[in-house]
UniProtKB/TrEMBL annotation:
<dbReference type="Pfam" id="PF00440">
    <property type="entry name" value="TetR_N"/>
</dbReference>
<dbReference type="GO" id="GO:0003700">
    <property type="term" value="F:DNA-binding transcription factor activity"/>
</dbReference>
<dbReference type="InterPro" id="IPR050109">
    <property type="entry name" value="HTH-type_TetR-like_transc_reg"/>
</dbReference>
<keyword id="KW-0238">DNA-binding</keyword>
<protein>
    <submittedName>
        <fullName>TetR family transcriptional regulator</fullName>
    </submittedName>
</protein>
<feature type="domain" description="HTH tetR-type">
    <location>
        <begin position="17"/>
        <end position="77"/>
    </location>
</feature>
<feature type="DNA-binding region" description="H-T-H motif">
    <location>
        <begin position="40"/>
        <end position="59"/>
    </location>
</feature>
<dbReference type="GO" id="GO:0000976">
    <property type="term" value="F:transcription cis-regulatory region binding"/>
</dbReference>
<dbReference type="InterPro" id="IPR001647">
    <property type="entry name" value="HTH_TetR"/>
</dbReference>
<dbReference type="InterPro" id="IPR009057">
    <property type="entry name" value="Homeodomain-like_sf"/>
</dbReference>
């Protein structure tokens, strides 16, 4: 009797996931050490211990790899503010969650600033849609809970404008503004919006 050996599809998925994790970890380390400019496919493949062909098949090119790095971190961040522990996740009062979200969003942007700078400047409206829409919906919901008389939709845009990667890069790198100062300013901006409107 002849037995045909077939590859276990589940095992292939596990191996693919393991390779993906190794590739993204290697790419993240290279970006952290050398910036986006240092993200060369051959170097990432060597650091991850995979063939360059595997890298191109999975990510297409250098920009596809950069977007995968953003996407991986973005999923973690969204999971944290949607379903993670308080105060970032559910379970704290809306004003506390707003401050936690804004602080975490500053950290998240600073962490991948070069990658987000590349992504947000790829096209005139590249910053909007996707993650921005998720941030905006989340922040609008919390603002409406915290300040029912405020225009939550517009205020969410005003707060998120401060987190644009080009602006953050300019302030942090060219103007010497710290991430902590930006966080404090965002908190002040939200507090100002909560004051009684002048008629």
């Amino acid at each position: 009797m002849t037995v045909n050996l077939v590859t276990n599809p589940r095992q292939e998925r596990v191996d693919a996931a393991r390779n993906r994790a190794k590739i993204l970890a290697a790419a993240a380390e290279i970006v952290a050490s050398h910036g986006v400019e240092g993200l060369a496919m051959a170097d990432v493949a060597a650091a991850a211990g995979v063939g360059v062909g595997t890298l191109y098949r999975r990510f297409g090119d250098r920009s596809g790899l950069a977007y995968a790095l953003i996407d991986e971190r973005e999923r973690e961040f969204q999971a944290a503010f949607i379903a993670g522990p308080p105060p970032l996740g559910p379970g704290a009062d809306a004003p506390v969650r707003i401050r936690a979200f804004l602080n975490a969003a500053v950290d998240r942007t600073v962490e991948q600033l070069d990658l987000l700078l590349m992504a947000e400047t790829a096209a005139p409206l590249a910053r909007f849609g996707g993650a921005y829409d998720a941030y905006h919906a989340h922040l609008s919901m919390l603002i409406a809970q915290a300040r029912p008389d405020a225009d939550a939709y517009v205020l969410a845009d005003a707060l998120l404008a401060t987190l644009a990667a080009p602006l953050l890069a300019h302030r942090l790198r060219d103007c010497g503004v710290t991430a902590d100062r930006i966080k404090a300013g965002l908190g002040d901006l939200f507090n100002l919006a909560g004051q009684r409107r002048v008629q």
